[in-house]
Amino acid sequence: MKIAVVENVLKLNDELAQQNRQLLKDAGVFSIDLMGSPGCGKTSLIERTLQHLRRHMKIGILVGDLTTQRDAQRMAEYTDQIVQINTGKGCHLDANQVRQGLDQLDLKNIDCLIIENVGNLICPVGFDLGQDVKVGMFSIAEGDDKAAKHPYIVHESSLLLLNKMDLLPYVNFSIPNFLEDINQLNSNVELIDISVSNRYQMHRWFEWICKQTFGRSEQNNESPVMNWCG
Ligand SMILES: Nc1nc2c(ncn2[C@@H]2O[C@H](COP(=O)(O)OP(=O)(O)OP(=O)(O)O)[C@@H](O)[C@H]2O)c(=O)[nH]1
Ligand SMILES: [Mg+2]
Ligand SMILES: [Zn+2]
Asked: Comparing 95-104, 164-173, 190-199, 208-217, which segment has the lowest mean pLDDT?
């Protein structure tokens, strides 16, 4: 008896992701898939980013959540290029949902698209959405073992953020242990420790976004982009 084997359950997703990637490339949009556990500060980071960069850069937002529109309502204060994707019982965004979201946006009027994935450190990593880069977000409140326990997000991310640095004095979190785990898993990944609440090191995140979106060199002090990002 011949047994059917599904060799690549993600094949359809990957094909749709490629279409999304082409669509975004054709429109000149740089795109970020922002992944992190529930409550690590994804929406807060995007709110602050919109506040700081919206006068200089056209930012579009797709935000995934199970049932509510709360995150989209928070961010809609700063942009009308925003779509809430409700995943129901789904614990991650997929390329088809993102495609439907992209259809609602005016891509020609977007420089940078930020996709806030469903709060989850596990399966968002496995689903290509057609993004240019994946960014993984951790926070001090979650404990210093989360990178080691969720290695795939560390492997797949181009940038890692460690948020809520303002809580460090109050929480038993070892920065050296966290860094050692990251270094063992992906010694090339860039890490920025931040606090969205008190704005600690937020300029480094703004610089990173600007550099990725417009391809400017950090050394280029003449660049108007870097001047207002810094
Ligand atoms: N102390 C502290 N709290 C923060 C910081 N950033 C965000 N928060 C708080 O953390 C809580 C969760 O923040 P959100 O931005 O909603 O987190 P999220 O990752 O979007 O959460 P989900 O969408 O539910 O996965 C809120 O109460 C924020 O005010 C920070 O830098 N420091
Ligand atoms: Mg959120
Ligand atoms: Zn999932």
From this structure: 208-217
Under CATH, to which class is 26-229 assigned?
alpha beta
Where in the chain are the domains?
26-229
Mean pLDDT of 182-189: 97
Q: Residue 216 C-alpha to ligand 2 middle, in angstroms?
A: 29
Cα-to-centroid distance, 44 and ligand 1 (Å): 6
For atom 14 of ligand 1, which residue has the closest CA? 41
E strand residue ranges, the chain: 30-36, 59-65, 82-86, 112-116, 133-139, 159-163, 190-193
Threshold 0.70, pTM exceeds: yes
Which SS3 state, helix, strand or coil, does residue 216 take? coil
The set of protein residues with a Cβ atom below 6 angstroms from ligand 1 is 36, 38-44, 71, 119, 163-164, 166-167, 195-197
